[in-house]
Structure formats: structure tokens, C-alpha cells
Amino acid sequence: MCSGEEDRVDKFVAMATAKVEVDLRLSDYAPRSQLKVASHPILRPRFPVIDYHNHLDAQSPMELLKIMDACGVERIVNITMRTGEAAIESLERFQRCAPDRFAFIGWMDWDGIERSDFVQLSLDRIERLVEHGACGIKFWKDLGLTVRDGSGALLRIDDERFAPIFEKAAELGIPVMFHTADPDAFFDPIDRYNERYEELAAHPDWGFSGSPVPKSELLEQRNRVFARHPKTTFVGAHLAESSEDLRSVAGLLDRHPNLYVDISARVAELGRQPYTARKFFLKYADRILFGTDLLPDVEMYRLYYRFLETDDEYFEYPSHASRQGRWNIYGIHLPPNVLTKVYRDNALKLLDAAGR
Length: 356
Ligand SMILES: [Zn+2]
Description:
The chain has 14 helices and eight strands. The protein has helices spanning 11-17, 61-70, 84-97, 118-131, 142-145, 163-172, 197-202, 215-228, 237-240, 246-255, 267-271, 274-283, 298-309, 336-353, and strands at 49-54, 73-79, 102-107, 137-139, 176-178, 234-236, 259-262, 288-289. It has an eight-stranded parallel sheet, sandwiched between helices.
């Protein structure tokens, strides 16, 4: 190399180290993929589908039936977010219209938590819901994070006072669904390192980085309940809230034979780890429930089917308008014997046990 040239920056090094700071607003950035790969939209699922996790209080049953018929959804489990008489009204509105197309999970009602007879009150409420057709009861993430008892103390999920509620569920044959905690990123600060920054910016109330109870502690409290009530069937909503770490979900399913998980609102997570996810589905095919937790819509359902049935690469995941993160997903092409369990058979087992 002749002298002089050494002083100049090497062209290749310059190219490889070039960096730029841009002022484009994140909200305005909308890149379009140039990838050209095979695409296999699935218009109807290979087997009839039961959506085990949705919220239909605001929906019209007749309109829903059109959507369901258009994309092969046999039944939707409506997890009401209402309590008391409003819950019964919501339930009856769907049962009057098409009892065989809708099922119903009740919402744990914390009203009256300060009363000394609160547990008995809850047992009566749950019995009443079941008399009206409910096939489960759901405990939401407010338990452990925000619900306080009469003395103002934060309630623990494994508070032993609630044991009779879980025993009652076993007696009635209904599963208890837990949505405990949230994705890992929701417990991190909402900053430039947070992979769900835009979603959290749209829903600041979903951020728990200031929570006095860390996520790991919330999950441990919940898991203690699974262990304490082996005769009760539990459903861990959203892959038991550990979809970023399927090894831990596998461990949970191994330790608790009374546990099922639903995949609702977690296709974004599953579809970015397709090899791991596929192995997980093959191994735990008997314990996974199809669910969406998204506004019912034909195209939304079709994205779920495409994820589960095809080996398509790098396509959009079904999501709320706020999206979950800036990535795309890959299909996991499940075999028919697994699909039929996840789409329908596992949910039917739980619905049959509850007499629905
Ligand atoms: Zn939900």
C-alpha cells in the first residue's frame, strides 16, 4: 500500500461504519416489506373453531353469527366484563339468540370485598351465574396488582380466604381462568429500550414498571393456587402470561396437570419464535385452547388460521389497532391431529365438564 492512501478512510470501512440520526417520527414510519414468498391465506379453518377467549358484551349476536359463519367459528366463549344483573343480562341476550353458538364465563366481582361474608357472597354469586349458564369464572390482573381489602391492604392472589371459591369451582365443574400480570415488557419502563413502546404509549395504564409487586411474584402467587387446588381446572389466559418464555409455560404445564392455557392475544409472541412455538404445540396439544381476545372480525380469525395452519413467512399478526411490537410472524403448520385439539376438542372438554 503506498503512503498517502493509509491516511484516507478506507471505502469499505467507511461504508460499514456509516451511521445516521434521522428525524422521522416513529408514528410516521411505515415500512413495506419487499419480501416475495409464498402466501396461503386460509379462508376457513381446517376444523370448526371454538374461540375460548373473547369479550362480547358490546356486540350484537346476530352480527356475530354472520362473522362466525363466514369463517368457520362454531362457538365463542363470551367472558363478560360485567358483574351482577348486567352480567346475567349479557349472558341471556346471547342465549336467547343462539344458545349453541355462545358460551359464557363470569367475571369475579370484588364489590363488597370489605364485608366479613365476602367469600359466601362470592360463592352465591358464582352459583347464580352457573345456574344461568356460565361455564367458568375469570380472575383478572387487578387481583394482585390493585384490588384492596377493607383494611386497604393489597390482596394477594394466593390469599387463603379465597380457597372455598376455587373448591366451589371444582364442585360445579367449571374452570377458573386467571389473567395474572401481563407481558414482560409491561413491567419495564416505557422508554426507548421497551420492545412494546408504541403499544404502551397508546395504553399508559398497561405499564406496571412502578408496581410494588414484581411480575415473578404475581405468577408465583397464582401458581400456588394451581398447586393448592388439584381438583380445580385452571385456564392460564394468554399462555399463562409467559409467552416470551415457552420453556416456563412448559414447566408450568408439567407441574400442574389441572392447567390449560389459551393463546389469545399472543400470536405476535408465538409467531416470532415459530420453531419453539411449533414444538410447544406438538408437545402440549391437549392443553392449549384457541382464543383471540380481539374484536370479532373475519380477517382477524383468518390471520389466526394462517398462523396455525401454514408455513407462510413474515406476515402480519392479528392485533388491536395499537399493535404489540414492530415485527411480523411465521406460520407453524400444525398437523391435523393437533389442530383439531387446539381449535375445538380441548375447549369442548371444558365446556362438557361444565355441562354446556
Ligand atoms: Zn381478555
